[in-house]
Design goal:
Elements: H1 2-31, E1 34-44, E2 47-56, H2 57-80, H3 87-105, H4 110-128, H5 134-160, H6 180-196, H7 205-208, H8 214-220, H9 225-235, H10 242-263, H11 269-289, H12 293-320, H13 333-336, H14 338-352, H15 358-372, H16 377-402, H17 419-443, H18 454-457, H19 459-475, H20 480-483, H21 485-496, H22 501-532, H23 534-553, H24 555-574
Antiparallel strand pairs: 1-2
Length: 575
């Protein structure tokens, strides 16, 4: 009961803070306010260390959402992690994780951003390796090293910002946007955002990070770690020129397509949801590269709600299936866990853009902006094909897990008795249903009216129905295995492994340096350096000691012989 009380107190405290922050966000939106605080920590002669804090509607709303989701995740953890002996450590790590994210949100200064950024990277490593097995250690190292690329990019951006005299980037974005130094800083920030938000080629760490406990995944994939890169790019979007925006658009749309395609060939429940997160991150990045930063932020908020709920539902299913994550072993769960299944379908429909749920207000507006904007045909096709793939893997997950017969053995009993987990999920269900419309009225005070031709207006609906039908066909295993089994198998291996990205950008990057290190070790450390170094010296000293030992073992003969030589020498000198 002590562990549950810790979770209850932590979640209650975070809920109060989240409502305060959301009220501040509404107040700042209505009055168009922005507060900028400077705290002089140390002043010595002409030098000073200043902590700057930016409070506006965007930072307040994002903090409110982060605190609300983390409070419900901590409440959910009270039931999910109830048998864990290190519950206190887990809760403290989650709270430190949230504090690092809040430091990043309120920072208009590159130094304090780096502190929050590195805090997220360090604590995410501690959370990914929480279960302390070989898989967790490998996933944690992959996560940490992939994110170190972005940390190095931020450090280089800090070095370039020495040209401006201050690291508070918020002062320079408007009137220095065409400066060369600011362009370099913008490119480095794009690189940092790509690593933290797992865009191509840094996508392999996101599914690997699923080695963390499911409550951590619900927090990481919704509102904290992966959205930090998107939030930083939203703040920096003023300095992006045409070439940077085109580069970011190409990478993000390709990431969205790759993740949507890979999720349709995946059978691990957690990895399917992780790949859907990657697809939605590509959607945020792509609309941000087109210049609609408020719309990207709006989708970031709505996505945080239904993705956290989706992970919570998946955690309840995994918990009841005795840690089995293969969707082929599921089926008929809607009969045994109706409340969890209802929450899962609400979050799935929000992910697909079902009208009047949270995801509809942002994703449908994004697609209409794409239809209305100036974009080439290749990007247009990838946008809508990726949308169809989203509906496809969502319906495939629905058919595999909730429909049909129960595919696990009959001894596996499933029930919904843990009220902590149910309360955490039900708190998010209302947010998923109502918060999309509320946030759209607040962020866009003037209603957005987009008038399109009939065939373009119906395109989103047609693509969604086609995606749902394709998901049903994939559930029935499909015609590809029967007609082209070998080719389909090779294609599914290529697509299901994220285009071999984990092999190319982890094993491929580390293979040749490790091979060179092995050759150096074999030829130098265990070869010539040993021959002329330690082992060679040891061999010479051994031979000299053997000679010395031979002299010592033949002492009487040697003394007589030396005495005889000495006598001859004395006689010779006398004569």
């Amino acid at each position: 009961m002590k562990f549950l009380s810790i979770c209850d107190y932590g979640s209650f405290f975070l809920v109060i803070l989240s409502f305060i922050m959301l009220n501040f966000g509404f107040f700042f939106v209505f009055n168009d306010l922005m507060f900028f605080f400077e705290w002089f920590i140390v002043i010595m002669n002409s030098s000073s260390i200043v902590m700057t804090i930016l409070i506006d509607w965007m930072s307040c709303m994002f903090m409110g959402f982060v605190l609300l989701i983390s409070s419900l995740v901590i409440k959910y953890s009270g039931g999910y992690m109830s048998g864990d002996f290190n519950m206190n450590r887990f809760i403290f790590l989650v709270l430190l994780f949230v504090m690092s994210m809040i430091l990043l949100i309120i920072s208009p200064n590159m130094i304090s951003i780096l502190l929050g950024w590195d805090g997220l990277g360090l604590i995410s490593y501690c959370l990914v390796i929480y279960y302390q097995n070989v898989k967790s250690f490998n996933a944690g190292m992959l996560t940490a090293l992939s994110n170190r690329v972005g940390d190095v990019a931020l450090l280089m951006a800090i070095a370039w910002m020495l040209n401006f005299g201050s690291w508070s980037y918020i002062f320079y974005l408007d009137f220095m946007s065409s400066n060369f130094e600011m362009m370099v800083v913008g490119f480095l920030v794009i690189l940092a955002g790509m690593t933290k938000s797992a865009q191509i080629p840094f996508s392999s760490w996101l599914p690997a990070a699923m080695a963390a406990p499911t409550p951590v995944s619900a927090l990481v994939h919704s509102s904290t770690l992966v959205t930090a890169g998107v939030y930083l790019l939203i703040r920096f979007n003023i300095v992006f020129d045409e070439y940077m925006s085109s580069f970011l658009l190409f990478i993000s749309v390709l990431t969205m397509f790759m993740a949507g395609l890979g999720a349709n060939f995946e059978y691990d429940l957690s990895k399917i949801i992780a790949l859907s997160t990657l697809s939605q991150l590509g959607l945020m990045m792509s609309i941000l590269s087109l210049g609609f930063s408020n719309l990207a932020f709006f989708h970031l908020l709505t996505h945080a709600l239904f993705k956290a709920l989706l992970f919570m539902c998946a955690g309840v299913m995994i918990h009841n299936l005795k840690d089995s994550q293969d969707i082929r072993f599921m089926g008929g769960i809607s009969f045994q866990m109706p409340l969890t299944s209802s929450c899962l379908m609400i979050s799935n429909f929000a992910l697909c853009g079902m009208p009047f749920l949270a995801g509809f207000y942002s994703s449908d507006l994004i697609l209409e902006i794409v239809l209305m904007g100036y974009i080439n045909f290749f990007m247009f096709v990838l946008f809508f094909f990726s949308t169809g793939l989203t509906v496809c893997y969502s319906f495939r997950l629905f058919f595999y897990s909730l429909c049909g017969d129960f595919n696990v053995n009959s001894f596996c009993n499933m029930w919904e008795v843990d009220m902590s987990m149910m309360k955490g999920m039900l708190g998010l269900v209302f947010m998923v249903v109502f918060m999309g419309s509320i946030m759209s009225w607040l962020i866009f005070p003037v209603p957005v009216l987009i008038i399109l031709p009939m065939y373009l207006s119906m395109l989103v609906l047609v693509v969604s129905f086609l995606g749902g039908w394709l998901g049903y066909e994939l559930f029935k295993i499909g015609i590809g295995f029967v007609l082209f089994p070998l080719k389909f198998f090779n294609f599914s291996c290529f697509v299901g492994s994220m285009w071999y990205m984990p092999y190319i950008f982890t094993y491929g990057v580390s293979f040749f340096p490790l091979l060179v290190g092995y050759k150096c070790y074999k030829m130098f450390d265990s070869g010539w350096s040993e021959y002329f170094g330690g082992q060679g010296l040891f061999y010479v000293l051994l031979k000299l000691s053997e000679v010395n030992q031979w002299w010592q073992f033949n002492s009487l003969k040697l003394f007589l012989m030396l005495f005889f030589f000495w006598l001859i020498l004395v006689v010779y000198l006398i004569i």
